[in-house]
Amino acid sequence: MFRPVDSHPGLQALEDNWLAIRAEYDSLKEVATQYSPTGWYWIVLRYHTLYMKRRELAPVTTKLCEAIPGIIAYSFTRIKPYGYVSPHVDDDSGDSGMMTGNLGLYCSGSTGLNSGGESKQYQEGKVWVHDSNVEHFGWNTSDKDRACLTFSYATRPVDFSKSVVVPFIMESLMNEGVKNVEEDSKTS
Ligand SMILES: [Fe+2]
After folding, report:
1. Hey, how many other C-beta atoms are within 10 angstroms of the C-beta on 111?
2. What is the pLDDT of residues 139-148, one digit of tens each?
3. What CA–CA distance (Å, rounded) separates 37 from 83?
4. Per-domain residue ranges for the chain?
5. How far is residue 108's CA from residue 177's CA, in Å, rounded to a whole number?
6. Among 89, 91, 165, 186, which lies 20 to 30 A Cα-Cα from 116?
7. Ligand 1 centre from 90 Cα, in Å?
8. Rg of the Cα trace of the chain?
9. Is 54:75 a contact under the CB 8 Å cutoff?
10. CA-CA distance, 84 to 112, in Å (whole number)?
């Protein structure tokens, strides 16, 4: 279920620049929106055709993610100490063949992800990708935050008109206010 960093163009550059990406996470981490009561937080930078203005505060991350072929979403994600992500399947109503990757930013102790019955530990500065249309869940059994850059790319043409703004993204948009969101008419 897991694919290595060399399985798709543009992913090695994330590893090569991971400390710069982590520094941008550090500057934004206080704005994270809690997605679930289990301690899962998101700092959305892009979701399909919605581009958060805060991505201007993460220029290295934004540039590198936009260079990934088929990129459709990227966020910083955080799991608080002893938090977890319940089993779920990511929304892919556009049938894009979506793959989701994680770049480890703060991953001390036992923190990982299970996808389709296979488990992997997060590692700082390392990328791996999984098919997020397969049920998956994550955990952080350490006493420190687990933080990643989490990104998704499509492997088939994307029809954004069929995509749905999932509830936690909508919550993030509502919390930030419309002024912090802009539609990109070039890709919609
Ligand atoms: Fe997911």
Report:
1. 25
2. 999 999 999 9
3. 9
4. 2-176
5. 34
6. 165
7. 5
8. 15
9. no
10. 10
**136 alpha carbon to ligand 1 midpoint, in Å?**
6
Around ion ligand 1, which residues have CB less than 5 A away? 90, 132
- CA of 49 from ligand 1 middle (Å) equals 19
Evaluated on CA atoms 61, 58, 172, 36, the torsion sign reads positive
d(CA 105, CA 10): 18
Cα 152 to ligand 1 centroid, rounded to whole Å: 10
Structure tokens at 115: 């996808």
Pick the CATH number of 2-176 from 3.30.360.10, 2.60.120.330, 2.60.40.1930, 3.40.50.11480: 2.60.120.330
Structure tokens at 21: 């990406």
Token pair for 97: 């063949």
CA atoms within 13 A on the CB side of 5: 14
CA distances from 177 to 47, 109, 119, 165, 168 (A): 15, 36, 37, 15, 14
DSSP states of 45-97 as a string? Answer: EEETTEEEGGGGG-HHHHHHHHTSTTEEEEEEEEE-TT-EEEEE----TT---
pTM for this model (two decimals): 0.87
